[in-house]
Amino acid sequence: MKNRIATIMSVLLLSFAIFLSCSKSSYNNNNNSNNSPNTVSMAGMAFSPGTITVPVNTTITWKNNDNMAHTVTADDNSFDSGNIGAGSSFSRTFSVAGTYNYHCTLHAGMNGKVIVQ
């Protein structure tokens, strides 16, 4: 009986440890490392958040938290960061209301959107 309880407790503790590990990883991926509401993280071949809504005259900073270069390139070519190396960042101030779709020219499917109100 004691072995059975010990086994059950071990499984529960292991499950709890895995849950915490996954939860922390998920939390860190959804929130950028700068803790700034106007920062977009580039990690895991994605922009996070994928859509950000800000008021006019707000500066957005894209931080490359990945281990490879990325770009922040407007779909209409109105802005382009060029290559942003790992650990580097790019900032742009949005002074006109509108929706700005952008992508990474190096990685197909890596897309984002800035909504300026």
General description of the model:
There is one protein chain. The protein has one helix and eight strands, in the order αββββββββ. It folds into two domains: 1-30; 34-116, Cupredoxins -  blue copper proteins (Immunoglobulin-like), CATH 2.60.40.420. Strands 2-1-4-6 form a four-stranded mixed beta sheet, with no helix packed on it. The protein has a four-stranded mixed beta sheet with strand order 3-8-7-5, with no helix packed on it. The longest helix is centred in the first third of the chain and has 29 residues, at 2-30. Strand 7 and strand 8 form a beta hairpin. The protein has one helix at 2-30, and strands spanning 39-43, 46-48, 51-54, 58-64, 73-74, 89-94, 98-103, 111-116. By secondary structure, it is α/β, with parallel strands linked by helices. It is 25% helix and 33% strand.
Count of beta strands: 8
Overall shape: it is elongated
Q: How many domains make up the 3D coordinates?
A: 2
What is the CATH homology-level superfamily of the largest domain?
Answer: Cupredoxins -  blue copper proteins
Read across the widest sheet, the strand sequence of neighbours is 2-1-4-6
Short note summarizing the structure:
The protein has one helix spanning 2-30; strands at 39-43, 46-48, 51-54, 58-64, 73-74, 89-94, 98-103, 111-116. The chain has 117 residues and is α/β, with parallel strands linked by helices.
